[in-house]
Write the structure tokens for this entry.
Amino acid sequence: MISNARIVIGGNILALTLKDWANIFDVNLWGVINSIHLFLPDLLQRREGHIVNVYSGAGIIGLTEPPPYIC
């Protein structure tokens, strides 16, 4: 299973609404958690398979103007 979905909402971080942040968390965080929750029981039952979560390097490398998203 590979989770590789994310959204970025551009603009000034102070201009984002709570709804914008909720959308970012829904896709970038909860999307990964929900995917693992869905596929993990089958992977454990079969005793094979892998989970790969693809994240951004923005969480490791500092950016001067980072886009507001959860890496």
Notes: The chain has one helix and two strands.
